[in-house]
């Protein structure tokens, strides 16, 4: 007997379920392109050299201990994370118009940001997310009691951005609503706006007085350059908008399971920044009290030490470049096997994923016949691919689309 017998079974997580099926498959040719984690050419997880060195320094530092951090985490980490996102010359940071706290990676920052808005945002509690988006976005904001609406983003015929549709939907949004934007390397499509299109989105957001919430899970991981991938965030911030930013160090520092992130609210007046920061801290206090220290201690050392920072940037570019090489090699292999159709989008898309355009039935063929595991929306993780496997993957894709 249990008073919990009526609890409904939760549906399996779309992505973690794939990993389980992958584990159970005994084929030597099996490939897991479902998970969004970087792998090396041998398919192994990577701990960056800069992370290992920073961790060694943390362990050897006699002033380090295991006491609680404050509710807002490591102040130096917050300062350096904001600088990395908004840039050295950011007027908002110089004027003290940011409230930044350390959070539990990107997800935790989105959630605390959502909780803060649901309690204190004076505008409509409506969050607009792209179609499609990272599946957790809707769930997180609904959990915070917000209403979630969608705007057009991806256009299947061009496998690119539906810019006109996106702008139309933004213009039709309730005045003052919250607009969630992927800062770069849109997940799952790999389709990002051009600089001109970002300007158009900014103008439309300004006209409707929208509050922009940037989700930045891939800064530096998309192009290999932190400044280039920070373009959209800086454009909006420098235009004087108030905005939120959830920053994750999971991908760019490879600190996935360490849960390292930062949440920033940029406000128009530094007096408001102090009040906002106090409420972000209370929100954290009630959810998990204070963030974990180990991963953030590592990240702080990397961000603060010029030599480690330089080493990290080289390694970050190495990861981004390997992904770009995988795009080229897969594209080449698809040409060589004569897979029907135009695969140029594999080269054009940005970041960790490629949205192949394969249908659910075609994905089923990939998995059942070829032992290639991927999400049903046709998304593959380019970071899980290696040179020696591009030929096999191209064969499987050819067979599946024919
Ligand atoms: N946002 C997006 C768009 C993501 O792709 C991810 C990672 N899959 C996250 C947020 C959050 O990841 P984490 O909580 O591990 O930082």
TrEMBL record:
<dbReference type="InterPro" id="IPR004838">
    <property type="entry name" value="NHTrfase_class1_PyrdxlP-BS"/>
</dbReference>
<dbReference type="GO" id="GO:0030170">
    <property type="term" value="F:pyridoxal phosphate binding"/>
</dbReference>
<keyword id="KW-0663">Pyridoxal phosphate</keyword>
<dbReference type="GO" id="GO:0006520">
    <property type="term" value="P:amino acid metabolic process"/>
</dbReference>
<protein>
    <recommendedName>
        <fullName>Aspartate aminotransferase</fullName>
        <ecNumber>2.6.1.1</ecNumber>
    </recommendedName>
</protein>
<dbReference type="InterPro" id="IPR015421">
    <property type="entry name" value="PyrdxlP-dep_Trfase_major"/>
</dbReference>
<dbReference type="InterPro" id="IPR015422">
    <property type="entry name" value="PyrdxlP-dep_Trfase_small"/>
</dbReference>
<comment type="subunit">
    <text>Homodimer.</text>
</comment>
<keyword id="KW-0032">Aminotransferase</keyword>
<dbReference type="GO" id="GO:0005739">
    <property type="term" value="C:mitochondrion"/>
</dbReference>
<dbReference type="InterPro" id="IPR004839">
    <property type="entry name" value="Aminotransferase_I/II_large"/>
</dbReference>
<dbReference type="Pfam" id="PF00155">
    <property type="entry name" value="Aminotran_1_2"/>
</dbReference>
<feature type="domain" description="Aminotransferase class I/classII large">
    <location>
        <begin position="29"/>
        <end position="396"/>
    </location>
</feature>
<comment type="similarity">
    <text>Belongs to the class-I pyridoxal-phosphate-dependent aminotransferase family.</text>
</comment>
<dbReference type="InterPro" id="IPR015424">
    <property type="entry name" value="PyrdxlP-dep_Trfase"/>
</dbReference>
<keyword id="KW-0808">Transferase</keyword>
<dbReference type="InterPro" id="IPR000796">
    <property type="entry name" value="Asp_trans"/>
</dbReference>
<dbReference type="GO" id="GO:0004069">
    <property type="term" value="F:L-aspartate:2-oxoglutarate aminotransferase activity"/>
</dbReference>
């Amino acid at each position: 007997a249990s008073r919990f017998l009526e609890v409904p079974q939760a549906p399996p997580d779309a992505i973690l379920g794939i990993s389980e099926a992958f584990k159970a498959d005994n084929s030597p040719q099996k490939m897991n392109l479902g998970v969004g984690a970087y792998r090396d050419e041998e398919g192994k997880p990577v701990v960056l050299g800069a992370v290992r060195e920073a961790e060694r320094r943390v362990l050897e530092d006699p002033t380090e201990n295991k006491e609680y951090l404050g509710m807002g985490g490591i102040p130096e980490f917050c300062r350096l994370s904001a600088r990395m996102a908004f840039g050295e010359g950011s007027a908002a940071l110089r004027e003290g118009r940011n409230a930044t706290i350390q959070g539990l990676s990107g997800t935790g920052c989105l959630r605390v940001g959502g909780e803060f808005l649901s309690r204190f945002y004076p505008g409509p509690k409506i969050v607009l997310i792209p179609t499609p988006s990272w599946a957790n976005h809707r769930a997180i904001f609904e959990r915070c009691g917000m209403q979630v609406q969608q705007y057009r983003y991806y256009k299947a015929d061009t496998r690119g951005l539906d810019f006109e549709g996106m702008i139309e939907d933004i213009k039709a949004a309730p005045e003052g609503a919250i607009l969630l934007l992927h800062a770069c390397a849109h997940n799952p499509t790999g389709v990002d706006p051009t600089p001109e299109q970002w300007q158009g989105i900014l103008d439309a957001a300004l006209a409707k007085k929208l509050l922009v919430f940037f989700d930045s899970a891939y800064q530096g991981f998309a192009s290999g350059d932190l400044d280039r991938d920070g373009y959209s965030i800086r454009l909006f911030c420098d235009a004087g908008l108030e905005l939120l930013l959830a920053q994750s160090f999971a991908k760019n520092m490879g600190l996935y399971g360490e849960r390292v992130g930062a949440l920033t609210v940029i406000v128009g007046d530094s007096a408001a920044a102090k009040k906002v920061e106090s409420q972000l801290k209370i929100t954290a206090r009630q959810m998990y009290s204070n963030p974990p220290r180990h991963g953030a201690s590592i990240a702080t050392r990397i961000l603060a030490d010029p030599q480690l920072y330089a080493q990290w940037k080289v390694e970050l570019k190495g990861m981004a470049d390997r992904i770009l090489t995988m795009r080229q090699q897969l594209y080449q292999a698809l040409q060589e096997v004569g897979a029907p159709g135009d695969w140029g989008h594999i080269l054009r898309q940005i970041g960790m994923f490629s949205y192949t355009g394969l249908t659910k039935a075609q994905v089923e063929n990939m998995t059942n016949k070829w032992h290639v595991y991927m999400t049903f929306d046709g998304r593959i993780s380019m970071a899980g691919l290696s040179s020696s496997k591009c030929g096999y993957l191209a064969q499987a894709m050819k067979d599946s689309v024919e």
